[in-house]
């Protein structure tokens, strides 16, 4: 059984970095690596339990960083049960979820203990081998003239950097040995990894990946001090976006990130503080300080650990970041204490039966539960494949299967709502015929009603699971805005109209995300359609103020000024519009705005009327 555990541990270490190397394994099985770690950790526990029954003794070891690791896990549990809104979403979060952390903690204990079940060779050596193989593939694929290496994920770049640091330390360490073979091997490894790191860095730089500023991270952290519970336990795992929306400013709105919800901090350390509070931050810092104190081994481990800590401070949280931290922590010391608990001879056959049945029920329940969660994740990922293939049936069927296995995840309901929103849009487009009223057949009208109602229901379910997400309310508003007049009842008043309901949803979104220019712009459009010109003008103006480089908002504002006969401000806004339209990309739009501006600047001269 020790050999089986050794193989499992080695495979888990080896597979983690390959999960981020999508260009080579994208056509193989689609498996979420979090579930691989979870099932692997569970399998190790089951094997250890069976081994204890066979040997009639439970062997337990303690290592130097056990207490800091367990304290950090405990802090996450506290935040999870007290501050988290949707516990299922937080449990499965791929960047800082409870399932991921539990799996890594279990693996930490197997990596750190001096048992026969440990992999042959250091876990960091196995990880370094994976890095060398991936680096070789990167170099080879970079020479491919048609495909190249494709998109380089940030985690893959992190991992190549980690391999470089570890290899550098190993090379320096090899010079202390008398034989030349280790030096030659380490030099070859370092050359390959260095080339791959350079290629990956250049490719990643060309992708133009942006991060929110550190100033916003500081502002988000300080939000926890507004109440004592949040200060101690944070806002909860997977609730970071609700905090970030409160602090983002005009400067952020002028970046290319402004339309995308931010679910993680740009710094792992700040993310931990914001989501788990001072308790989580203190426990993690205790782990980091203990790790620094216990690094007494060779230079390769020291450099690898320092690199991991650097990533924690500078870059966002992810599975790889925490994997490197826990793996580094497991290699800090070998002064383990062993405790052996022998089963007494009085432990009868009846006692064994009860123990085995209890363990079977517990392990079986966990396996069944994790399997359901994995199948839901698998079918949902297949629905995304259906979107790429433009197959509505594949999308619909797979999302329904995902619901059947896990109905508690917000993203599943939002995805189902969006699919029906697009379906409703397609039906409306087919019914459109110029400027005439929409013409629906009996079947198309019924399909449209069902699509819109399903979209509303699914979006409302997502809101009920976590009402702190501003974009959920904005999505609901979009659905109500889509409802055509032909579906509205004749006796429907403005108070209970879809547009008014959409306004209510947008106001709720603005309570959660007060500096979002898109929400103000949408509100302005609705208010203008309701002939509330003054209120609509204020909303459009607010949108332009919050995003000074948004051409659409300034154009709309300019036209409103023109309607008010305020030509000076109309010209000003249209000139700003032109400054924010690239004629190389949107030539037609640029020409249209310029033509409008020229007409306002030089209105046609009217001939004088004869007076009789």
From TrEMBL:
It comes from the Bacteria. Signal peptide: none annotated. Keywords: Membrane, Transmembrane, Transmembrane helix. The chain crosses the membrane at residues 7-25, 31-53, 65-82, 94-111, 123-143, 149-172, 184-204, 268-289, 301-329, 349-370. This is Uncharacterized protein. The lineage of its organism: Bacteria, Candidatus Roizmaniibacteriota.
């Amino acid at each position: 059984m020790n050999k089986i555990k050794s193989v499992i541990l080695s495979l888990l270490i080896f597979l983690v970095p390959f999960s981020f190397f999508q260009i080579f394994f994208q056509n193989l099985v689609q498996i979420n690596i979090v579930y691989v770690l979870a099932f692997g950790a569970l399998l190790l526990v089951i094997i250890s339990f069976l081994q204890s029954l066979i040997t009639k003794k439970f062997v337990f070891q303690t290592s130097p960083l056990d207490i800091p690791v367990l304290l950090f896990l405990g802090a996450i549990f506290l935040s999870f049960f007290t501050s988290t809104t949707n516990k299922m979403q937080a449990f499965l979060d791929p960047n800082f979820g409870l399932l991921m952390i539990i799996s890594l903690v279990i693996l930490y204990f197997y990596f750190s203990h001096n048992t026969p079940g440990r992999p042959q060779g250091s876990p960091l050596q196995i990880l370094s081998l994976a890095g060398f193989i991936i680096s070789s593939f990167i170099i080879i694929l970079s020479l491919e003239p048609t495909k190249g290496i494709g998109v380089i994920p940030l985690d893959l770049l992190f991992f190549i950097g980690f391999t470089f640091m570890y290899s550098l330390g190993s090379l320096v360490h090899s010079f202390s040995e008398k034989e030349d073979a280790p030096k030659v091997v380490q030099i070859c490894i370092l050359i390959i990894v260095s080339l791959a790191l350079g290629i990956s860095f250049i490719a990643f730089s060309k992708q133009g990946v942006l991060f929110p500023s550190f100033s916003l991270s500081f502002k988000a952290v300080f939000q926890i001090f507004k109440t004592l519970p949040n200060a101690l336990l944070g806002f909860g795992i997977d609730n970071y976006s609700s905090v970030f929306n409160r602090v983002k400013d005009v400067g952020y709105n002028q970046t290319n990130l402004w339309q995308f919800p931010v679910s993680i901090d740009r710094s792992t350390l700040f993310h931990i503080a914001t989501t788990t509070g001072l308790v989580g931050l203190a426990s993690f810092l205790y782990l980091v300080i203990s790790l620094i104190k216990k690094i007494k081994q060779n230079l390769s481990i020291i450099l690898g650990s320092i690199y991991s800590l650097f990533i924690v401070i500078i870059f966002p949280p992810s599975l790889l970041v925490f994997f490197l931290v826990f793996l580094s922590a497991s290699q800090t010391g070998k002064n383990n204490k062993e405790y052996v608990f022998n089963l007494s001879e009085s432990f009868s056959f009846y006692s064994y039966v009860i123990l085995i049945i209890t363990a079977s029920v517990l392990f079986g329940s966990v396996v069944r539960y994790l399997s359901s969660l994995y199948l839901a994740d698998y079918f949902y990922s297949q629905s995304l494949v259906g979107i790429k293939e433009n197959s509505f049936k594949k999308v619909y069927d797979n999302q329904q299967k995902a619901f059947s296995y896990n109905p508690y995840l917000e993203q599943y309901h939002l995805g189902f709502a969006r699919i029906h929103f697009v379906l409703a849009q397609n039906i409306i487009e087919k019914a459109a015929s110029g400027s005439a009223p929409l013409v629906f057949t009996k079947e198309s009208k019924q399909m449209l009603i069902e699509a819109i109602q399903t979209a509303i229901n699914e979006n409302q379910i997502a809101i009920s699971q976590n009402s702190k997400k501003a974009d959920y309310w904005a999505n609901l508003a979009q659905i109500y805005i889509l409802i055509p007049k032909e579906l509205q009842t004749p006796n429907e008043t403005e108070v209970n109209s879809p547009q008014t309901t959409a306004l209510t949803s947008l106001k709720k979104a603005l309570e959660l995300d007060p500096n979002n220019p898109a929400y103000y712009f949408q509100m302005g459009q609705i208010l203008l359609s309701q002939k509330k010109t003054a209120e609509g003008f204020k909303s459009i103006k607010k949108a332009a103020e919050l995003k000074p480089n948004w051409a659409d908002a300034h154009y709309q504002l300019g036209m409103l000024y023109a309607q008010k006969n305020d030509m000076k401000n109309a010209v000003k806004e249209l000139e700003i519009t032109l400054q924010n339209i690239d004629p190389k990309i949107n030539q037609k739009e640029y020409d249209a705005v310029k033509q409008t501006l020229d007409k306002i600047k030089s209105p046609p001269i009217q001939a004088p009327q004869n007076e009789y």
